[in-house]
Design a protein that fits this description.
heterodimer, A: alpha/beta, 5-stranded parallel beta sheet, two-stranded antiparallel ribbon, 46% helix, B: alpha/beta
Chain lengths: 390, 267
């Protein structure tokens, strides 16, 4: 049972608590958009409050979709309270929209009026059954916010300007030791020896096993050009000592391994994906990062995903940050349709296009292209050839 | 596209709003003169800029409000934009013009929600001084929208509202009135301030007696800077070195005749 309350703010009350990042993770805090003719503006404000600020300009984001998205994100993130400040700016229909929305997500609704402005909607408050509460009943973090410290994220390339020598694996190590600065040589040596030892201790013999091995090494060491190339040359050396002559085409091999064996998505990347108003692209990208094929992705139904964002039918190790995205898409589909709809509406082409757009827009560490049946050129070239040493 | 009605085509072909964006720097042909109203407003800017608050400047046309706005934009030490609200604005013109002023481009959004989101996102990155001139044109609706945008951006930018009669509109909405941190009123020039200002604008008036200046002010300028500048520029065009009452009378006649002709043409 949800409750509906209204409060009157004291004179001169600032709304920082409604916009600053504070420790109220299960609450939506919005300032009522003025002059709003429909629930679209309110839904947009709620989406923004939930962090969904990307792709709000899609023409198809009509009020139904915006409201469904707002509800889906709220349900996926476990929202329990909806606080709306400057409630006097809401229209009467907008107040009933708020009641409807709060009921839809099973959250308590709190309207905060500015000083002396309760009279604007006094009749509506009585009619709808709102309870009057003293302002002090609001959480302290809303009334006297202590902003959470925001850690700036540095997005710099530590290896900028470093060019690795393009040498055959047999001469690669002497080449980089002769050409690179000492601190980079130390780093390359650590990567080289780690990858070499791991390869020597492995029993990889087939292209599949070697690709898997490369995937595990890159997952552990990173996939920047330095980690990728140095570890690949070390693997070639280690595999030679294991009795295999392995030729690598780094371009094709990198794409093959990254597409099938590596998932470098971090919590920060998944949090970036929460920026989209409509969660379908984010959810599809999560499954793509988990190496689920587009065909398998489109075969999923909404109820295949649990309310927590797990997919029991697929044995996936999905991080908690990514589960929210899948849960949001589940709720989005269930709210829009009656029965058990597909998890995604689009076809393979549209889904891939969506993933590609997301990867490019957010600069995610994923390979956003797929080899199709029509594309015969280079089909099957995974960039690796293995021969036994006679 | 061929199925569109003329109304739809007119709606989709958005006018270029860039001509409503004023340059954030002074563009004067004469020296900047700091009148008492100017100095008064200048003292308010420190608080507005330091704490990212909302300021309001009211006053009749021609008293130097826009000049002050451009001066503040030039001297604020951070990004700045001056947007003039159009007469008879469409419902979302406040958002449209503000987006153009901040981003330099027409808005991508198609409705109020989308444009609000676009402006909030742009302002969060920009963090500059936004000055909205002729704010009286957008009325209470536009002022409330401005307050909402300012509130939802944390606030991360100082906002200066400039317009004739804006104070009265603000007083109609108490939450908005409480948000205004500093209010200043630009008044027409009077007494010694008038003589000092006119002589500072053009040194050739140093030798002109007070009575002559007062005559021209009573007859035409009414203490308004804009009119005095028009008068001085007319005398400069005529290459009058030492203006007397007759020169000023002729200049006033010339200007008012031009104005009357313009009004007739418009009619």
């Amino acid at each position: 049972m949800t409750t509906m309350c209204y409060y009157e703010a004291p004179r001169g009350f600032q709304l920082d608590g409604f916009v600053d990042p504070i420790d109220l993770p299960t609450a939506i805090r919005v300032i009522a958009p003025p002059n709003a003719k429909s629930v679209h503006a309110l839904a947009g404000a709620i989406c923004r409050a939930l962090g969904a600020v990307l792709d709000t300009y899609t023409k198809r984001n009509g009020e139904t979709l915006m409201l469904s998205s707002a509800a889906a994100w709220s349900l996926a993130t476990g929202i329990t309270d909806l606080y709306i400040a400057a409630a006097e700016d809401l229209t009467r229909p907008a107040i009933f929209d708020c009641i409807d929305f709060a009921g839809r997500i099973c959250a308590h609704l709190h309207l905060v009026f500015s000083f002396g402005q309760v009279h604007v909607h006094a009749a509506t408050m009585n009619e709808a059954g709102f309870q009057s509460r003293p302002f002090e009943d609001l959480p302290t973090s809303l009334r006297n916010p202590v902003p959470l410290s925001v850690v700036p994220t540095a997005n710099t390339d530590a290896y900028e300007g470093i060019e690795l020598p393009d040498d055959h694996w047999t001469t690669f190590r002497p080449a980089y030791r002769a050409s690179l600065p000492p601190h980079i040589v130390d780093l390359c040596d650590r990567i080289y020896l780690d990858a070499y030892t791991t390869t020597r201790n492995s029993k990889a013999h087939t292209t599949e096993e070697i690709s898997t091995l490369a995937g595990s090494i890159w997952q552990r060491l990173g996939i920047h050009e330095i980690e990728r190339t140095v570890s690949a040359r070390a693997m070639q050396a280690g595999l030679f000592r294991n009795g295999l002559l392995v030729r690598l085409d780094m371009h094709h091999f990198t794409r093959h391994v990254q597409l099938n064996y590596v998932n470098l998505m971090t919590g920060a990347h998944y949090r970036q994906l929460r920026g989209f108003v409509n969660p379908w692209r984010a959810a599809a990208t999560v499954l793509h990062a988990q190496h689920v094929t587009t065909e398998d992705t489109l075969a999923l139904r909404a109820l295949d995903v649990t309310a927590e964002g797990d997919i029991p039918t697929l044995s996936l190790n999905i991080p908690a940050e990514a589960k929210v995205l899948l849960a949001a898409q589940r709720w989005h589909q269930l709210l829009a349709k009656d029965a058990n709809p597909p998890l995604f509406n689009g076809n393979a082409h549209a889904t891939r296009q969506g993933i590609r757009a997301v990867v490019h827009q957010l600069n995610l560490p994923l390979v956003p292209y797929w080899r199709t049946q029509k594309d015969d050129k280079g089909r099957g070239n995974i960039g690796i050839k293995v021969e036994g040493i006679a | 596209m061929t199925n569109q009605t003329p109304q739809q085509r007119a709606k989709n072909n958005r006018p270029d709003l860039t001509n409503l964006v004023l340059p954030p720097r002074l563009e004067l042909d004469h020296p900047l003169v700091k009148t008492p109203s100017f100095r008064n407003a200048q003292s308010a800017m420190t608080s507005i800029l330091k704490r990212n608050r909302i300021g309001l400047i009211d006053g009749p046309p021609g008293t130097g409000k826009t000049t002050f706005a451009q001066w503040a934009a030039e001297r604020c030490g951070r990004p700045s934009a001056v947007a003039a609200m159009p007469e008879n604005p469409a419902p979302n013109d406040f958002l449209r013009v503000s987006i153009v002023a901040v981003t330099g481009q027409n808005p991508d959004g198609h409705n109020k929600t989308e444009m609000e989101a676009e402006l909030v996102a742009a302002l969060a990155d920009w963090k500059g001084l936004l000055i909205l001139d002729e704010i009286q044109n957008v009325g209470l609706r536009g002022l409330t929208e401005a307050r909402y945008i300012h509130d939802t951006t944390r606030p991360q930018f100082p906002l200066l509202l400039v317009g004739w009669g804006a104070s009265k509109t603000v007083r109609e909405n108490q939450p908005l009135s409480e948000r205004i941190r500093q209010r200043r009123f630009f008044k027409p020039l009077k007494g010694a301030d008038l003589f000092t200002t006119v002589r500072a604008i053009d040194e050739r008036f140093i030798g002109v007696p007070d009575d002559v200046i007062r005559y021209a002010d009573d007859r035409y300028a009414q203490g308004l800077l804009r009119r005095w500048v028009a008068l001085i520029e007319t005398l400069q065009d005529w290459e009058v070195e030492h203006a007397n009452e007759d020169d000023l009378t002729e200049a006033i006649t010339s200007i008012t005749e031009d104005e009357d002709e313009d009004e007739d043409d418009a009619a």
